[in-house]
Amino acid sequence: SIGTARAARAPADGYTFSLGNWPTHALNGATYTLNYNVLTDFEPISMISSDPLLIVANKSNPSNNLRELIAWIKANQDTLTQATTGAGSASHVAGTLFQRETGTRYQFIYYRSSSQAMPDLISGRIQLMIDTSANSVPQVRAGAIKGFAVTAKTRLPALPDVPTVDEAGLPGFYSLNWHGLWAPKGTPKAVIDKLNAAAVQALADAGVQKRLADLGHEIFPREQQTPEGAGAFQKAEIERWWPIIKSANIKAE
Length: 253
Prior knowledge:
The structure is a single chain. This protein is of the alpha+beta class and about 250 residues long. Helices cover about 45% and strands about 20% of the residues. Strands 1, 2, 3, 4, 5, 6, 7 and 8 form an eight-stranded mixed β-sheet that branches. Strand 3, helix 4 and strand 4 (about 105-110) form a beta-alpha-beta unit.
């Protein structure tokens, strides 16, 4: 939020822009009291990529699929913990929705980053994470943790054996940690168009595509790589998630 605020106040000349994501350009508007508007104080340039979250647990967990995991959580929820990267973070908001959708409850533990939480998940100090694929994919591949579901409509090429939430028995539980580019409000259209062309060219590069795929990212379709498509996507995400955050009374601490 500090960096995004600086980008919002920067001169609208195209030399400062924001590489934003789901929290910075959607969730933070509902969890923080900000001195800028996440939607109206920026000019969208392009969506870039999204990495769905993964529902993961310690490898000693006895569950073999998501339905068994949910049943196990309900039987042990008084002592369970889920790691998050702070109140109002992607992992916390997704965890809150998971509790609501599954009728479970357990304690959230706040870490500074998901990479700091991962060693505690591997060691068993915490039991659950709803984590970014970029952080969890290498650990699932290595067998250090168990992956139960991808929070997207399609499976991850990087983890083809991990089912989607629809396949695993929690239909519609979609949570994407998306990324895009924004410029300060009032940046000239010619500048936005030039930055957009550069982003589109980069996303068409085979090396960029492979690297993002290896990290579990999916590049947005061409129509959402336009400024108009990026703006419409951001607005739809705000309309979906803000009511969930406010009904759960989630506030950043």
